[in-house]
Specification:
Blueprint (H helix, E strand, L loop, with lengths): L7 H11 L1 H8 L3 H10 L18 H31 L6 H23 L6 H31 L3 H32 L1 E7 L5 E3 L1 H7 L20 H15 L3 E8 L5 E12 L5 E10 L1 H48 L7 H32 L5 E4 H11 L1 H6 L3 E6 L3 E4 L1 H17 L8 E8 L5 E7 L6 H4 L20 H11 L3 E7 L3 E7 L3
Parallel strand pairs: 7-9
Antiparallel strand pairs: 1-2, 1-5, 3-4, 4-5, 6-8, 9-10, 10-12, 11-12
Helix pairs in contact: 4-5, 5-6, 10-11, 11-16, 12-14, 14-16
Amino acid sequence: MKPSPVSGTDSELGTIICGRNGAAINQKASFGEQFSEFFNGILHTKDWPPRWYCGNWSDFHGWLYILSDLGIWAAYFAIPLLMLNVLNKRKDIPFHGVYLLFVAFILLCGITHLMDAVIFWWPAYRLSALIRLVTAVVSVFTIYALYKILPSVFSLRSVSELEAEIRKRHIVEEKLAASEFLLSEAGKISRVGGWEIDLTTRAKTWSQTVYDIFELPYEYSIDHYDPIKQVQPPYRETLRKAIRAAILTGSDWDMELTIVTAEGKTIWVRSTGKVLYDRNGKKVKILGTLMDIDRYKTNEIALSQSLELTTQHIQQLKNFTHILSHNIRNHASNMVLISSLVETETLDEYNAALFDKMKNVSDGLNATLEDLSQAIKIKEDPISSDIISFREITEKVLGIFESDLKVNNVKVEQVYETERISFPHIYLESILTNLISNAIKYRNPDKDAVIVLRTYRNEQMKTVMECRDNGLGIDLELHGKKIFGLYKTFHERKDAHGVGLFLTKTQIESQGGQIQVESQPGKGSVFKITFNE
């Protein structure tokens, strides 16, 4: 509504005030006087007429101006309210301070437009100027605050980047869910569960498998449940000491113990625990696992008992063997002694033949008992090892066979990549004696006999000794499984007894070594001895 018409005198005053004359009068006062006059008359309106009378406003022009300012004010008033509502509901929105400055800036801009509309009726130009000053100050602060946060704003990820990250996180979450499922199922199958104790809050956390081991329902509250009470003595006190040591000194534990489940079953479990520290080195948690080992432990105990019983039986058999060997050897020796006292010349031809056969059986029995006794001694009483030279022992053994080597024109080659070995001196002599003796005995008459003795280290850095010959060889398909058996012979020779390789294998295995053979009929044999130093 337009103000009431003014008199001619007021119209002239308004013209003077709105024109140059009023401005010239005010400019004559000092700055201090102007400042004091401004704030003392902040709400006074006598110096100006309403805007309707300051200029030549038509109704259309004036109301267009007024309604536009009111519309701008209404929008500027609504926008801050919406922003404040958003800030109130979304506490995670960054840059709250800048948002509040924008709220004040927009609100003040709206008030300036409201004052422009009000001045058409109430010419409070001083108040309008003050509001504009405040708006300008807030605007400057808003610009400065916005400038300060621009680097942070530029560092924020775009919507497309956030969407890409969300997609990646979904993929990772799906994989983690799948891995967690597999881990959970693996834990259930293997009966291994995890647990955790927060040392600050004393809160406990169990995996489902731990509930399964204790035979408790998953919804069971474990806050006041003491699993240590389910541990049977004497393991209970041992576990308490381990937990106490972990809290005081940070030490870990790994032990086997028995527990009683909620269903009253007694089972073996394996408990482990480890202390977790924060960045400051403070103990914050104890993590651990619980594994159901009842099936394995039961089998282990049964196996241990069976092994103990077997050991007792073996010892009894050893005692029986010693007694039997001693008694039979005594009888066999007596038979040999009595046979030596008999004068065969006094016997007739038939009885003399029978006596010779009986004497041969007696001598054979005595020799067999001696061989078995020697093998038993090797297994029961292994000799301590010494650092010995392959070359020195070989030369000593070759000296024993010197005449046989010359008569049979046997050539011996020696290659020692490894010079020394930790092995019983007497055993190595015996082994070389048997191998060289066999190589000479079973040489190929159609070839010049060659024996190659070689030492070296294999891929596992163990010392190996090879004895290679070009003799008759052995059919391993036919005799391979019994080649190291007692009294096993593979060639038609009267002087073959089948004891040498048996004793050789026994001596090597008594020191933790191995012997292998490679052979083909007519192409010779290779015996490989791997020492366990």
